Amino acid sequence: MSGANRATNAMLAAAGFLRHGRGAGLQLVAVALGLAVLTGALLVHTLGVRFERDLARLVLEGRLEVLESARWNRPTTTRTS
Hints:
elongated, 0% strand, 81 residues, mainly alpha, 3 helices, 80% helix
């Protein structure tokens, strides 16, 4: 059996399981989506914690010139209310 035939058979089997799996297929899809959302939330939280840690480390080491240069190099945005 060629690779294309195996892939086609696997896709047909998966489609059949989702159609006739008595809700198990939908549960698997829901779990996969839930895990994707939780992974994204964990990533955002981790990035926030690392940013706070790096800022605290810069302040603790007395490297305030880095913070000042970041403040001055920040692009200015105009907000209209």
